[in-house]
Specification:
The chain is mainly beta. The protein has helices spanning about 115-120, 130-135, 150-160, and strands at about 10-20, 25-35, 35-45, 85-90, 100-105, 145-150, 165-170, 170-175, 175, 180-185, 190-199.
Length: about 200
Amino acid sequence: NFAAPIAYGAWQIRPQLIRTNRTNQHWTFTVEQDGTVVGSGSAVFGITRDTWSDIEATPPTVPPAAEVELTPFPEFIGWARSYEKRIITGTWDTPSEDSTTTMWIRDAPARPLDFPALAGLSDTFAPRVFVRHANYMPTGTITMTTYFHATSAELAAHGDDYVLATARGARFGNGHFDQYGQLWGGPDHTLLLATTHQL
């Protein structure tokens, strides 16, 4: 939860353990900068077990990353320089009735995928309102939640390959809009690595 802009410079995370159960652990935390709380959040950790599993969601059908041109970004969008993006649908060059963006993305320079990298990738979608209006508009994330579905072994097996990422909004109005995203990986990019939600 972003209570205020986080400036360049030092910051501290102050975690608090809420409860430890047999298979999961619950934490809350604040992010503080210059003596002021600028963010808060929660983290839930669970023990992984070998149980029945299935992936009900399906990845979008897309051309291979090598067949999609690199997408340039304006120089003033600083975070974009940290990623190599190949946007398939949902660029913001013309207004659209559909806010869906689907793209191939990875760190630049490429590095093996791990949980911090996956967290970063889950926040690389341009605001959905940019896609709808094909224009920069004042926006700021109020809250973001990312669910990691992948195991450490699955991320290690993914290596430094592209992640297939797709996101769309559901409702825009009253000064707010949401976003739901999926990140796909694995050898054939049919393994759901993470889902992410923002307001």
